[in-house]
């Protein structure tokens, strides 16, 4: 806006303000054109620009204080005048943050304009301390509320809403403590406004609106007004307003005053010491001990003695500014203060009446509006504030659970928890408004914290019904994983750049309450079953056209392999060795299908069960189909023994799976929305398991959790004693209970410990509280452990610069690499590589029959921890050798057995005698490689076993349906079911049908490399079948083997092949006895 236009607008505004009215003998008289002038001001405000110049001009003129409020007081019965004044007041008192779309302006001039508007609003709030203004507004609001809905016009509804918005705007104006300079137990401007509203009995109308079912449209306005009225009050202080102050509270005030006085005296003392009578040029020359200069001598300083204590090399370094997005966020402006006794008594009565008459119905209404999206985007914040404030007030004021029954339930926990997750997701996605979402997350966190505190208070209630209700509710929130994960999730994702330290204090308090409740609950119950989320699985959803022809696209070999896997389970089910389910339904009787469609449905269910390896269900469905449609060949016959063949035909048939009845309608509606491309969707399956509190606490041994707690510990001087105690308890769990004290080996933590020790031992003993002493004990424990670790590990001093996880903490004390499941690969240094090249060039021509070049290198290397394999791999990496297998040592067939070899063999046998593969373990760990049969003969010779059979691999006892196995002891031999399976295979083989694949055993017999199981000795193989031809050429042999595979001898051939491979490995061409 240009200067000429600004001057013209200014003159018009001044003319309009001068025609409103004037004072005469203590009374304000309006002008005839008063209403028109007010409308002109409204039009000017509507046409205001982005700089809000019109609003700032009216603020400088102070038209609200000099004209608008006097008109409201002296002409309360003028309906037209009252309507225009209220509209103008609502516009002028609109919060400044809303004028800038809830974002603080960054540009310099815009920020100055914003601050000017805020100062005008603070002057408006001072003008509203007049009780006569509130009496006029209250009478008008009361008259409008007395009208019934039938007689209430739209103008009346708008007027009610404008009055409530005006009250909200006045209370929303922020306080200015630097200008007011008010202390606790004193009256500030906000208290004066509250007292003026109390004199006008405005709170009674608010209680009526919140409790009435006919005024639910204004519930959000009233809830926001209540939150602004009580924003500076503490629920605990209000609940104890009528109680006299205890001696402890008075002593606490005295201590705080003395502490502030000591801080002021210390600051003045430092200022006095900084002053010097001599000129700085003659400060003196000193040497600083324990601080080296450029050379080996001590540092020489030319400065005064008062500045030598602050000597640092960083003084001359340029300051590196930290980016704004990485700076810690400033603390919130929420100031809690203690008002005068009259104000506290008035607000306590308001809270008591609200809890008694309005809390439950209003919270029910507000929550229903929020769930139906009838409120604004941020209205749930007022719901969370009311939940937190009034539940805490009720907890300190007699604690009647019935007064807050609407919000102490499972639904309330679920709603708050889901909103917390939503807020965090918005913080991640909406970066521009991350600070706004962070504040909303903080409000929700306080609500969740109060829910937990109220639940903990219900345990100590004298009423049995309340304690039982708390027990049921705790069982719910401890059972579901969502409630257990939320606290750890918030801790792991704490970000100091967007979340203030007050948020961390509330978060730590919430974690402390939850963990303490969970620990007591776990101690009171021997076995706690909780639900856990299983690992997500991927489920493919293919095209509809491909889904119908899925079986057609599978190769015949794959289908034959699948049939071999499922046929063994079918044999068990048909012979009655597996229990069949009795609750199967062959088709869906709710659908109006024909008989042929019902048969197709039954066949598709059988086909689906076979594909899912549910053989018992498939056989039960087949027999159910036999009873429904007797004489049908497609279902076979139990008397004629054709069930197996019928199931085989159903398995190989191209049958599409039929949809369930519950999903039939959904599939029909989703047909048009199916995509042409394949999609993969993840689904989580929940499972139940026993809960262990120690395992839950171990999850807090995370570097992010330790960083958050140590950051809060660094503010121990400003923390409350309760907060310090909560931080101390968690660090004690980590350092003492879990033995993870190396996670606290960090320079910033030690700096905090140094300050704690200084405060603990510099102050008199009577001034040191118990929490500070416990923190000093923790610091002493951690530092002593650090000194002990430093004696064994000199690198621990460098580890102070880094935060450590559990693996790093363990290796810091027990040695690097000790925490790894697999041995860590040690990198080759340049010196070691050079040494390896020299040794290889020296000994590559000096090989002996007993030692090759690798053995000679290992003997002469400085690093004796290198293995033969690592040397071979490094030689290949350097290009010195081409093939590692050329240097692989062969078994020494004729090597004599020395005494140490026999002792080693005995030790290995005793160590692995309980193993399922004794010989495999012994052969792997023998220092001198020998043929397998030589080792077996030596074991028999020295009497460790009596029979070679004892050295074979042991089988696990088979069990379960479908060929599945159950865990058994390693000593169990082969069961009788194995023989029965082999007999069934042989019967099917003679009948010409496809054989049933025997059940696979993990440890059955001597397992070859390819995993095939060796059949028992008495099991018939292809050797017992009469042969009609002999292979005399490779082509003929290939033909014979193909025929044997087709007739069902594939398992036997695989076993024979694996046995020959094992024998080939044990064969030594230099030893004739090894054949």
Automatic annotation (TrEMBL):
Keyword Cell cycle: yes
Domain Timeless N-terminal residue range list: 27-288
GO cellular component annotations of the record: replication fork protection complex
Claim: Cell inner membrane is one of the keywords in the record: no
Sorted UniProt keywords: Cell cycle, Nucleus
Comp. bias (Acidic residues): 672-683
InterPro entries according to UniProt: Timeless, Timeless_N
Protein name per the record: Timeless
